[in-house]
């Protein structure tokens, strides 16, 4: 055991090693059991060779069975017993005396194989020129194997087409599941944001709800038109500014403010819904954080109603945007209490 293990003296029995890098440079008369990031078997093994690692290179014969699990496996020796390999990339250049089973992506075979060869590949199976398989070749892969004319398979070939891409039904199911997760994540995020804004700025939320709730119908329509005008006209202004070199910076600034306004409009539409709900049902004017959560939940449920849900949410967001713009305007430009409001 160690970071780097190198066997330089023959072992009259079994050999086991655990390390970052293991090199077997002397014969082993028993079995080999190796677990390492990099494995190099450069001497013969009289028994079985079992190894798990990242990169596995076997260059000398194995008298028993060979079991290898790793990222890449290259065997240029020859196993007298059975061969079982699981690896992303596998290369066998000296054949095998027993049956061979390989699971992986890209698999290359060469040499003389005395028994059956079974392959399950998610990529490509290729036989080198002159390869001989005395048994059967049974393989499963997305495409047919590369079989040179000089390659021989005495027992016949059995091919099973296996596409690892999802079929139409599975693709639709995955699409619906992905959309569902996206909607749930978006709704949860909106609920959290509405609760935070209502809880962190309760006075602002109360004033916002009070003005929206107590305003006249004419003022509500004007707020709705103001929100519509700003949310529709702003992208046009940004596009025109982007056409000029001088206006690019200003366009980016307006774009950030526009995105912030659109986000706040949706969130405060939910807070307004929750505030109206608590005033009508609970007879309470004080705004609490869960009022925003309740309102956003109601607004999210309304959005799921076919045909009319999204238009209602859109109009609510436009109205909230208009109300926010008015409040920001009065906050930025102080006015005398006797000065009439624009809206």
Fill in the keyword field for this structure.
three-stranded parallel sheet, eleven-stranded parallel sheet, 26% strand, disordered C terminus, single chain, 343 residues, alpha/beta, elongated, 2 domains
Number of H/I helices: 6
Dominant shape? elongated
Unreliable sequence segments? 336-343
Main sheet, how many strands, which sense, barrel?
A: 11 strands, parallel
Tell me the total number of β-strands.
Answer: 14
- How many structurally independent domains? 2
Mean pLDDT level:
87
Please report which band the strand proportion falls in: under 5%, 5-15%, 15-25%, 25-35%, 35-45% or over 45%.
Answer: 25-35%
User: What oligomeric arrangement do these chains adopt?
Assistant: single chain
Helix percent band: 40-55%
Report the structural category. alpha/beta
Q: What is the helix/strand order?
A: EEEEEEEEEEEEEEHHHHHH
Structural commentary:
- This protein is of the alpha/beta class and 343 residues long.
- It has two domains: 2-161, no CATH class; 168-332, no CATH class.
- It is built from six helices and 14 strands.
- The chain has helices at 168-200, 202-214, 217-242, 248-282, 289-303, 309-332, and strands at residues 2-7, 15-24, 32-41, 49-58, 66-75, 83-92, 100-109, 112-113, 117-121, 125-127, 132-133, 137-141, 152-153, 157-161.
- The strands form two sheets. Strands 1, 2, 3, 4, 5, 6, 7, 9, 10, 12 and 14 form an eleven-stranded parallel beta sheet that branches.
- Helix 1 packs antiparallel against helix 5, helix 2 (202-214) crosses helix 4 (248-282) and helix 5 (289-303) runs antiparallel to helix 6.
- The relative contact order is 0.06.
